[in-house]
Write a structure and sequence with these properties.
alpha/beta; six-stranded parallel sheet; six-stranded mixed sheet; 11 helices; globular
Length: 333
């Protein structure tokens, strides 16, 4: 009996040591969201979703932090870098300068910058082709509008959102050249991403001018645009993550930036020892951007419209349709 107890005790200790060893060698990931946070139902929420999938399917250890403001990114990234994480994500263009500084100070760490681009040997920049999906939902709006007037509510007035807008306007005009596009931005600071009352105010104004579909590319501010669509009995198009569920029947679709997929793929590759130094781009061709279809909007888009959108998508991927790119246009000025 005593020998049996000793054997059982030794087995338990051995198993425990083995589990500790597994935990100690688990791939460790840190993610710094911007101040919109994981509950913004938009860009940060998509990134957070990717980390949760990686934890569940890949068995990695993930630590997620939310930035307090734009100035907090650098010290928070520096703190994460000092704690020997295998891969550190910075979510959002506002963290670009912070990543540039901290990556130089910790050359043996690997960083992933989402939605902006810097050149450093230990940084991979992940970008999305916003103009492509902008064009596709612009076509969608033009093929669906009854008034011939559609709108756009952007968040912070920056090149990235202008890129969405340029594609959107081109998509609208390609289908209905005489349609009018009304444009507003909610601000010029980071607060523009989290101001639902302003988003609602601007959308209400557009709807009252005859607009019947508004594409909202404004982070958490989109929630106000959706409220306005419901209040006026009109339609909105969401952005970044699938927001169809927020106001079923009033959200025509959502322009998806598959941040969740990008985050998951980077973690999966990193766990395998693969690090994509440089810039990785996601577009329509690889499903990195698309529009959302589910039970919440299935009745809003007719089969005829969906068939036309499928043709437009394939033409963009094949290069038959050249979508104007704000980044390229700005450089040529």
């Amino acid at each position: 009996m005593r020998r049996s107890l000793v054997w059982i005790l030794a087995s338990v200790i051995s198993l425990a040591i083995g589990q500790v060893g597994v935990a100690a060698t688990a791939y460790r990931v840190a993610v710094l969201l911007d101040k919109g946070g994981k509950d913004d139902k938009s860009f940060n929420a998509a990134a957070f979703k990717g980390t949760q999938e990686a934890e569940k399917k890949l068995g990695v250890k993930v630590k997620v932090l939310e930035g307090r403001d734009d100035n907090s990114a650098e010290p928070m990234l520096r703190s994460l870098a000092s704690k020997h994480f295998d891969l550190i994500f910075a979510i959002g263009f506002s963290q670009a300068e912070a990543v540039k500084k901290v990556a130089a100070q910790f050359p043996d760490r690997h960083f992933v910058l989402i939605d902006s681009e810097i050149q450093a040997p230990n940084v991979v920049s992940v970008l999305f082709e916003e103009h492509e999906i902008g064009y596709l939902v612009g076509s969608m709006a033009a093929l669906t509008t009854k008034s011939g007037k559609v709108g756009f509510v952007g968040g912070m007035d920056i090149p990235l959102i202008r890129r969405f807008l340029m594609g959107y306007e081109a998509g609208v005009k390609a289908q209905r050249p005489k349609d009018k596009v009304t444009v507003n931005f909610t601000g010029v600071t980071g607060e523009a991403w989290n101001n639902p009352p302003k988003g609602k105010e601007l959308a209400i104004s557009q709807f009252d001018q005859g607009v019947d579909i508004v594409f909202a590319a404004a982070g958490a501010t989109n929630m106000g645009v959706f409220d306005a669509a419901e209040e006026r009995g009109k339609l909105a198009i969401g952005c970044d993550s699938n927001q169809n569920w927020v106001k079923p029947g009033f959200v025509l679709s959502s322009a998806l930036k598959r941040v969740d997929t990008a985050v998951y793929r980077m973690i999966e590759d990193g766990q395998k020892g693969v690090f994509h130094n440089g810039t990785v781009r996601y577009g329509l061709a690889d499903g990195g951007v698309d529009f959302a279809m589910d039970d919440h909007n299935a009745k809003l888009l007719t089969p005829a419209v969906l068939t036309k959108l499928a043709k437009i998508r394939s033409d963009i991927v094949a290069g038959k349709v050249k979508v104007p790119d704000y980044y390229v246009a700005a450089k040529s000025k």
